[in-house]
C-alpha cells in the first residue's frame, strides 16, 4: 500500500510550515507510524533541525537529486519514537542549483514519480513534504505528489490572504491536473496565543467557508467539511526559538516537546486530528 503523502504549504512565509512538519512527523512516529520527511525548501530549515550545518552545506543526494531522477539518501533521525523517521534533506547548495536553472522545472510530477516508483519509500506510512514559501518548482513538486494538503497560517492578515490565494488560484489547477485525488485537510492556525478567542477563529472559518463555496462543485468536494482544524499550534517560546538556535541539532525536538507538557499534549491532539481527517474524510458540500 503506498504511503499517505501530506504536503504542508502556504505561499506566505513565516506561517510555521517547517515547525508543523517536524511536530507532525514526531507525532505520527510516536504513534508507531513510519514517517519520511522530504525537505523541498532550499533554505533547508527542516534539515537543519536534525543535521549539522556542515552536513547540509553541500548535499548531492537530497531532495533536488531525487527530483532529477538521481540517487538520493534517506537519513535516519533518532527521536526515540516507536516508528522510524527518515529525512531526505535539502542542501544550502540547492539554492545555487535553483539560481542556475539546474532543476527539472518542466516536470511538476518529479517528486510524485520517485515516491510512486521507489520500493524503499513504499514501506513508509506517511511522507511529509515541507515546501518553500514561493510557488516555484519544489513547491509544485510537493503539491503534485500530495494525497493531502495542510495549510498552516497565523492570524495575521497577509497569512490569511496567502491561504485564499492558494485555495483560489493554485489548488484548483492542481486538482484538475494531478494524477491523485488530492484532498485538502484544512487550515491549521500556528504560533497563536491562548488569548485568541474562539469567536475570532470562527469568524475566519466562516469567511473561508463562504469563499470556498463559490468554487465549482468538483473543487468544493475536495475540501474537508470543516476548513479550519479544531487543534491549533500555540506559541511556545522554546519551540519558536529552536529554528534560530545555534547547534539546534544538539537540542533534539523530542526534548523540547517532552519537557513541555502543554506542547506534548498539543502535538498529540494535532496528530489525532490529522489521522481522523484522513481516515474519515468528510467532504464539504455545496
Describe the structure.
By secondary structure, this protein is of the alpha/beta class. The protein has one domain (4-272): 3-Layer(aba) Sandwich (Rossmann fold). It is 42% helix and 14% strand. The protein contains 13 helices and 8 strands. It has helices at 17-30, 45-48, 53-56, 63-67, 94-99, 110-117, 137-145, 157-177, 198-212, 217-220, 237-242, 253-258, 261-279; strands at 4-8, 35-39, 75-77, 85-88, 126-130, 148-153, 183-192, 233-234. The chain has an 8-stranded mixed β-sheet with strand order 3-4-2-5-1-6-7-8, with helices on both faces. Helix 6 (110-117) crosses helix 7 (137-145). The longest helix is centred in the middle third of the chain and has 21 residues, at 157-177. The mean pLDDT is 91.
Brief synopsis:
The protein is built from 13 helices and eight strands. With 286 residues, the protein is of the alpha/beta class. It has a single domain, classed as Rossmann fold, CATH 3.40.50.300.
List the helices and strands and how they pair.
Elements: E1 4-8, H1 17-30, E2 35-39, H2 45-48, H3 53-56, H4 63-67, E3 75-77, E4 85-88, H5 94-99, H6 110-117, E5 126-130, H7 137-145, E6 148-153, H8 157-177, E7 183-192, H9 198-212, H10 217-220, E8 233-234, H11 237-242, H12 253-258, H13 261-279
Parallel strand pairs: 1-5, 1-6, 2-4, 2-5, 6-7, 7-8
Antiparallel strand pairs: 3-4
Helix pairs in contact: 1-13, 6-7
Which descriptors apply to this entry?
286 residues; globular; 42% helix; 8 strands
Amino acid at each position: 500500500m503506498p504511503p499517505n503523502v501530506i504536503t504542508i504549504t502556504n505561499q506566505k512565509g513565516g506561517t510555521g510550515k517547517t515547525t508543523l512538519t517536524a511536530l507532525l512527523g514526531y507525532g505520527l512516529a510516536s504513534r508507531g507510524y513510519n514517517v519520511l520527511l522530504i525537505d523541498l525548501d532550499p533554505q533547508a530549515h527542516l534539515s537543519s533541525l536534525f543535521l549539522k550545518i556542515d552536513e547540509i552545506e553541500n548535499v548531492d543526494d537530497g531532495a533536488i537529486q531525487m527530483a532529477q531522477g538521481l540517487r538520493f539518501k534517506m537519513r535516519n533521525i533518532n527521536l526515540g519514537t516507536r516508528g522510524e523517521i527518515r529525512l531526505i534533506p535539502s542542501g544550502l547548495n540547492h539554492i545555487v542549483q535553483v539560481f542556475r536553472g539546474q532543476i527539472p522545472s518542466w516536470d511538476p510530477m518529479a517528486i510524485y514519480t520517485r515516491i510512486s516508483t521507489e520500493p524503499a519509500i513504499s514501506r513508509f506510512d506517511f511522507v511529509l513534504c515541507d515546501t518553500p514559501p514561493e510557488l516555484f518548482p519544489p513547491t509544485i513538486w510537493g503539491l503534485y505528489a500530495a494525497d493531502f494538503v495542510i495549510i498552516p497560517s497565523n492570524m495575521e492578515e497577509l497569512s490569511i490572504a496567502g491561504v485564499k490565494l492558494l485555495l483560489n488560484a493554485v489548488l484548483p489547477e492542481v486538482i484538475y491536473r494531478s494524477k491523485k485525488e488530492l484532498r485538502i485537510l484544512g487550515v491549521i492556525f500556528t504560533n497563536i496565543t491562548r488569548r485568541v478567542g474562539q469567536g475570532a477563529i470562527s469568524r475566519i472559518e466562516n469567511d473561508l467557508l463562504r469563499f470556498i463555496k463559490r468554487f465549482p462543485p468538483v473543487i468544493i468536494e475536495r475540501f474537508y467539511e470543516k476548513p479550519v482544524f479544531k487543534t491549533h499550534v500555540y506559541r511556545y517560546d522554546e519551540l519558536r526559538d529552536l529554528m534560530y538556535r545555534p547547534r539546534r541539532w544538539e537540542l533534539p525536538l523530542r526534548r523540547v516537546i517532552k519537557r513541555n507538557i502543554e506542547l506534548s499534549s498539543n502535538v498529540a491532539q494535532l496528530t489525532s486530528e490529522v489521522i481522523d481527517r484522513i481516515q474519515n474524510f468528510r467532504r464539504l458540500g455545496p
